Amino acid sequence: GVIRRILAIVDRVSPYRMLAPDRQTWCDAGILAGTIARLQGVSRTELRRILNDALIFATARRFGHTVLTRNIVDFDLLHQLDPSGKVLFYRV
Fold first, then answer.
1. What's this model's pTM, rounded to 2 decimal places?
2. Average pLDDT per block of 10 residues along the chain, 92 residues long
């Protein structure tokens, strides 16, 4: 089914392929994370986690990639704030 097709695609990606965020991507991620922090009233620990997720989201958006994640809560919020990013959710 769908999971097998996704796994086949993921298996083809080189484990050494890395994307580095630039200064603008860091700024975009900070704005996204800060907006969520203010709207949701998150703790410092949660803010770090959300900043990491926002950085993944913003980096993928910059390169035109889709984020594949089970983290529906955080990435749905990020996508609502910035619909130009692409996210594909899955459940196991």
1. 0.84
2. 84 82 97 96 92 98 95 96 96 83
Whether the CA torsion 10, 13, 14, 18 is positive or negative: it is negative
Q: Angle, to 10 degrees, between the axis of helix 44-63 and the axis of helix 72-81?
A: 60
- Please count the CA atoms within 13 angstroms of the CA of 45 that sit on its side-chain side: 0
Secondary structure in 3-state letters for the chain: CHHHHHHHHHHHCCCCCCCCCCHHHHHHHHHHHHHHHHHHCCCHHHHHHHHHHHHHHHHHHHHCCEEEECCHHHHHHHHHHCCCCEEEECCC
Structure tokens at 5: 């097709």
What would the two tokens of residue 70 be?
Answer: 């089970």
